[in-house]
Fold this protein.
Amino acid sequence: MPTNFKVPIFDVKNLSYEINGVNILSNISLEIFNAQYIAIIGPNGGGKTTLVRMLLGLDKASSGEIRIFGKKLKDFKDWYKIGYVPQRASHVDANFPGTVLDIVSMGRTSQKGFFAKTTEEDKEAVDSAMQKMDIVDLKNKMIGTLSGGQRQRVVCARALASKPEVLILDEPNTGVDAISQNRFYSLLKELNKVQKITIVFITHDVGVIADDIARLFTVNQKLTTCNNPKQALSCKEMSELYGIDAHLLHNHKHGH
């Protein structure tokens, strides 16, 4: 059952991160609730990926607090509730000896471990994840033979195999052609609207922000929240964020 929508999935307060005396993120506060479609944007080096890694417990904050599903980060154990697609996850060695089915099945190990026996529930979860990403017809194909767009959907299905309540995608469209991107956006929209999965989409490219994204976090050392992405950001604000002339594509239709 979905988590109570009144309790934030992620509740971040006064988060800062520095390394070797350099401030990467400063005083970040945000909330992400169940069934929201969130985009996190900002320039390269602005701290987007660092923020995500801290949310996942991969990097430790210099100060501040993170709660996940109401629990302090150090006490949170139900990581299967969070599906994660890291940067360049679809860049697979062409000689990797695994089928699509093998790769997606790996998504069940977050709950069971590598050596646990495969159950009917596991098979159903893997099949459901492949159906959601429209890759059932590819299940016996070797992962290294697929196109970039197909591999993108495979790694997303792997993340979905644990039946997460949240799906975090860190610049998943790197190296993927525009047609595949459009198809991928449609699948993400369905996951959010039909399956009620919270989507957190990280990108440095303003042009890929879809019309169906309801909330926007802009990150460049500090964070700004926009509850109306189509209207709240002026070109002046975007230029300040990126340090260059920039434009928000108000009528963007998932194309370039």
In short: The chain has one domain: 10-242. The chain has a mean pLDDT of 85. Strands lie at 10-19, 22-32, 37-41, 63-68, 71-72, 82-85, 166-170, 198-203, 215-220, 222-226.
